[in-house]
Amino acid sequence: MAQPVSLGHGGRLSSTAVTALAPAAWGTTYVATTELLPPAGVGPASRKGGPREKDEMKRVLATAAALVGVAATVLMPSHRATADGPLFPTTIALPAGFQAEGIAIGSLPIAYFGSMADGSLYRANLITGHGDLLTRGPGTQALGLQLDDRGRLFVAGGTGGDFRVIDAWTGATLATYHFATGPQTFVNDIVLTPEGAWVTDSFTPVLYHLPIGPDGALPPPDAVIRIPLTGDIAYLPGAFNANGIVRTPDGTALLIVQSATGHLFRVDPTTGITSQVDLGGESLTDGDGLLLQNTTLFAVQNRRNAIATIILNPAGTTGSVTRRITDPRFDVPATIAAYGDRLYLPNARFDTAPTPATSYSAVAVDRPR
């Protein structure tokens, strides 16, 4: 039997039974054989036909329907190349004028991109490089993105001070939160932990926390917790400060990069107290998006057109920069996500004046081994 693949809303997918066709707009036809498996805890031994079980199955079936049209169809391509390029292209064109910034990739080969221009979200098939607009934005920005295992996309709103939760399959807005207002607001990047979402603000020394319980229920609008950042970090006026954020390798604390100084800080999420990470004299100036894989931290240095590779100790108190990845296609990349053996980065092009006709793209590079 084929191995199940993680599927939004708690379901699983294995390649055995139903044939489906990908949307023509994605540029090629794929044949997929899929079998819907119930989410954990809703198997024959546990299913009692109660409201919760029925609701869960409805959600799984709805997700499966969406996947037939969007994602599940990429499991088994019907041929090895398309008319306009190879599979898994290393450059993905984004809409003109999009002003790409954030990226999120889950367990399926689908990337989500956020727009600095108006907060729109674009969804791209990593196998073909084709995509479509998932949802038009509310007029505020879409910066940091994170995708959870329930098929929900968390979106940081930048200068708008807002924070949205979007259904990654339908584009529907599930919840909106208002973290802050005013000129000293820049809600920037996100990390998800078992306790919920943690979000940086580049202009105000505060860490926003949106608590999410084990059942995944989104909290009410007044549940947002604001934790002042104290300790070693010192915000510089008029500069970009706290930016990318991840957990430490052992999961006991958080790490944030300060763009203006290039310092990396370990943050106690309960107190907001920060301590500078010892990088042996190295700097992460222009540090932007972060990605942690095991004890390896990838830090995008946007205007340096580089990705710093850092090996951390488990607690995240020390680290060593082992190399920097560069590529001639980098044009001020902002954030980073991984799929398979590749790292994907949207080119934000901060040094290029944006117009409705300005081109934007995302590029893929091999992940160091």
TrEMBL record:
<protein>
    <recommendedName>
        <fullName>Superoxide dismutase</fullName>
    </recommendedName>
</protein>
<dbReference type="InterPro" id="IPR011042">
    <property type="entry name" value="6-blade_b-propeller_TolB-like"/>
</dbReference>
